[in-house]
Amino acid sequence: MDPVARAALASWDWRPEVIVGVLLLGTLFWVGWRRLRAISGRSRGRRALGAGWRPVSYTAGLLVIALALMSPLDVLVQQLFFMHMIQHLLLIMVAPVLLLLPNPLPYLLWGLPGRARLAAGRGLNSLIHKESAVGRVLRKMTGPGAVWFIMIAFIIGWHDPGMYNAALRSELVHDLEHLTMFAAGMLFWWTVLGVGPRLHKNLSRPAKIAFVIAAIPPNMALGAALAFSRQPIYTYYSDMPRLWGISVLDDQRLSGIIMWIPGSMMYFMIALALIFLILSGEGRKPALDQEIWSADESLIAPGVGR
């Protein structure tokens, strides 16, 4: 094996900020889940507060983030464009969906000690209240149209040659790229999944399908542009040692295909899942209402988290 490839595959970047963030959020969720499961008693079913899939999904999302940012994958992105594309898909599409599916807000709140939980709940409610200045701004910035634009703007914007090369040459810019892409992905899938905190009326399932499908054309267009380009677009990779005999142009074409086909298929899969829920009547079942669990009387329930 190429010595550079061997060194890259053996490299793990144990970043303290990522480790602390993952451990803190994971601990809060698991503690909150155990407390809410104790309160909800023996309720069963996929939608139950204590359903076992919820912490599993959330933990998987955190592990995907850790894998994307600390594993050899993060080292290989410096040599291979297609590895960078895989990393972006993990941060934009995979991790956010796994983190948001269990509706994490109630569990994270209940993971806090009693007084901190009450303070956090009150602070969040006052922050997003429809009459507050911050709440009004947040509602304007998180409408479906604005969220769709933010998602597409960040994906396409960071693939501008100047921005992309800058991210690869500067660790600070690279971290900013990952943070903004992840935030855009969280906003996008938060709108689709309709989880808390809810700033808008939950979209109907047909509207969610249209919202998801609308993200496919720009994603496919960018992927196709990369796949069919006859010359390297990102000069940074031209100066890097080539691994496994993959040329700069072939690497770029593979990256475009990954964005074009697997990337677009993720949107299709979510749209198909929403269609299945409509046909199965699942949409008529009530969702977990996070506002019940952020009310003062619930946040300080006797004997829980004190």
TrEMBL record:
TM segment ranges: 18-36, 56-75, 81-101, 141-159, 179-197, 209-228, 257-279
Topological category with respect to the lipid bilayer: Multi-pass membrane protein
UniProt KW keywords: Cell membrane, Membrane, Transmembrane, Transmembrane helix
Any one annotated GO CC term: plasma membrane
Subcellular location: Cell membrane
InterPro entries: Caa3_assmbl_CtaG-rel
Name of the featured protein: Cytochrome c oxidase assembly factor CtaG
